[in-house]
C-alpha cells in the first residue's frame, strides 16, 4: 500500500512541471469535463475505488456526530456543479439526464469522503472572466468563482436521481445567499435549501452551513458575529433535524470573535466547526478580491483552530473542530491535529500533490 502511494507521489511530482505549464483555469475546465465522463462509467468508478482501497488506509474517527472512515475529507468547492440562470433551467437539465455536478460519483470513489457544494437557494452563474489562479512558489491557489452552482433544488433533483450510487458518507454544504440582507429572508433561504434535499430524500451524513464566501463580490462577512451566527445556525438546526450540523467560517477573525462564535455554535446545537474558508486577497492583476487557499492560508487557519480550541476547552463546548487550509503534507496535517482539530479538509493539495493527496499526506504523517 505504502509503496503504491509513494510511486503515485513521485509520478505526479515528476509530471507537475509540465502540468504547471497549462493555464490553471483551462486545466480546471478540462478536469471537470473528464470527471463528467468518468462519472458515467461503472468500470472506471470501480477502478477508482480499487485504487483508493490500495492507497488510503482506513482510520475511522467520530467527528461532529459523523462516523468518518478517515480523518481527511475533500472540502466543498470542487464537487459543486454547473451554474444556471434560473432554477427552472437547472431542474430541466437534471431531469434530462445531464451531469450537472461533475465528480459526484468518480471523485469520492477515488479519494474517499467529500463535501458537496456550496449550494445556494437559487442557482448562480458565478463571476465571468478570469476566476482561477495557481501560485506554485507558495503552493497556493486563488479563486473568485463566485459560488457558481445549480442551486439547492437543481442539485437535490440531480442527486436524488442517483441516490443508489451516492457515497456511503458525504456532506452537503449550504451557503448563505450573497446579496440577501434581510435576516428573515436569509433564514428562509437556508431552510428551503435544506428542504430541497430532504424533500427529495437526499440524506447526507452531515449538512454544513457556509458563513463565509470570500470568492464572491458580496461576501456576507457580517454573518460571523456571535448573534447573527447563532440565529442562522439555529434556523439551519431546525431544518436539518437529527442530521449533524457543521458550520464553516473564515480566517483572520479576532480571538474574541472566535470565542463568541464557539459560544453561539454550542447554543445552536452545532456539531462541528470547519476552520477555515479561503483568505481574501487581491487578484494577481489587482482588479478584484479572490479567496486564497493552500500554503498561504495555513498559518491563518491554524491560528483560528487554536483560538476555537481554547474557547472549547475553557467552556467545555461540545463542538468538534475540523482544520481546513493548507493541508499540504504530513507536517501541516499534524499541525492541525496538535492544535485541537479532530479531522481536516483539503482542496489545494489536489492541485500540488495530486488527486491522491489524502493518501500521500497521511503516509507522510505516519513517518
Q: Topology, please?
A:
Blueprint: H1 2-19, H2 24-38, H3 42-55, E1 61-63, E2 66-68, E3 72-74, H4 87-95, H5 106-111, E4 114-119, E5 132-135, E6 140-143, H6 151-160, E7 170-175, H7 183-199, E8 206-210, H8 226-240, E9 245-249, H9 255-268, E10 272-275, E11 279-282, E12 289-294, H10 295-315, E13 320-324, H11 330-339, E14 343-346, H12 349-352, H13 357-366
Parallel strand pairs: 3-14, 4-7, 7-8, 8-9, 9-10, 10-13, 13-14
Antiparallel strand pairs: 1-2, 5-6, 6-12, 11-12
Helix pairs in contact: 1-13, 4-6, 6-7, 7-8, 8-9, 9-10, 10-11, 11-13
Question: Mind explaining what this structure looks like?
Answer:
- With 367 residues, this protein is of the alpha/beta class.
- It is built from 13 helices and 14 strands.
- The protein has helices at residues 2-19, 24-38, 42-55, 87-95, 106-111, 151-160, 183-199, 226-240, 255-268, 295-315, 330-339, 349-352, 357-366; strands at 61-63, 66-68, 72-74, 114-119, 132-135, 140-143, 170-175, 206-210, 245-249, 272-275, 279-282, 289-294, 320-324, 343-346.
- It has an eight-stranded parallel sheet with strand order 3-14-13-10-9-8-7-4. A four-stranded antiparallel sheet has the order 5-6-12-11.
- A hairpin with a 4-residue loop joins strand 5 (132-135) and strand 6 (140-143).
- The relative contact order is 0.14.
Amino acid at each position: 500500500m505504502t509503496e503504491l502511494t509513494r510511486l503515485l507521489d513521485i509520478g505526479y511530482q515528476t509530471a507537475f512541471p509540465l502540468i504547471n505549464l497549462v493555464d490553471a483555469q483551462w486545466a480546471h475546465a478540462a478536469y471537470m469535463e473528464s470527471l463528467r465522463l468518468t462519472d458515467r462509467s461503472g468500470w472506471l468508478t470501480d477502478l477508482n475505488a480499487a485504487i483508493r482501497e490500495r492507497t488510503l488506509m482506513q482510520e475511522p474517527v467520530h467527528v461532529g456526530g459523523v462516523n468518518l472512515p478517515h480523518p481527511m475529507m475533500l472540502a466543498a468547492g470542487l464537487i459543486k456543479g454547473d451554474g444556471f440562470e434560473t432554477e427552472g433551467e437547472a431542474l430541466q437539465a437534471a431531469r434530462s439526464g445531464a451531469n450537472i455536478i461533475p465528480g459526484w460519483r468518480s471523485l469520492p470513489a477515488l479519494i474517499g469522503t467529500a463535501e458537496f457544494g456550496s449550494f445556494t437557494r437559487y442557482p448562480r452563474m458565478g463571476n465571468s472572466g478570469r476566476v482561477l489562479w495557481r501560485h506554485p512558489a507558495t503552493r497556493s491557489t486563488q479563486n473568485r468563482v463566485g459560488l457558481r452552482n445549480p442551486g439547492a433544488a437543481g442539485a437535490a433533483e440531480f442527486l436524488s436521481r442517483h441516490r443508489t450510487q451516492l457515497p456511503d458518507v458525504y456532506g452537503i454544504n449550504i451557503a448563505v445567499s450573497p446579496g440577501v440582507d434581510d435576516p428573515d429572508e436569509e433564514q428562509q433561504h437556508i431552510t428551503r435549501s435544506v428542504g430541497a434535499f430532504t424533500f427529495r430524500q437526499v440524506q447526507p451524513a452531515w449538512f454544513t452551513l457556509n458563513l463565509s464566501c470570500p470568492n464572491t463580490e458580496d461576501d456576507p462577512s457580517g454573518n460571523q458575529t456571535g448573534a447573527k451566527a447563532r440565529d442562522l445556525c439555529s434556523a439551519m438546526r431546525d431544518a436539518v433535524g437529527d442530521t449533524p450540523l457543521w458550520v464553516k467560517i473564515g480566517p483572520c477573525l479576532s480571538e474574541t470573535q472566535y470565542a463568541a462564535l464557539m459560544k453561539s455554535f454550542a447554543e445552536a446545537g452545532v456539531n462541528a466547526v470547519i476552520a477555515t474558508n479561503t483568505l481574501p486577497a487581491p487578484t494577481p492583476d489587482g482588479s478584484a478580491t479572490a479567496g486564497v487557499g493552500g500554503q498561504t492560508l495555513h498559518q491563518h487557519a491554524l491560528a483560528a483552530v487554536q483560538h476555537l480550541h481554547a474557547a472549547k476547552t475553557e467552556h467545555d463546548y461540545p463542538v468538534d473542530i475540523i482544520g481546513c487550509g493548507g493541508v499540504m503534507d504530513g507536517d501541516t496535517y499534524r499541525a492541525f491535529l496538535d492544535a485541537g482539530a479532530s479531522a481536516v479538509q483539503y482542496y489545494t493539495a489536489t492541485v500540488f500533490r495530486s488527486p491522491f493527496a489524502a493518501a500521500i499526506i497521511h503516509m507522510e504523517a505516519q513517518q
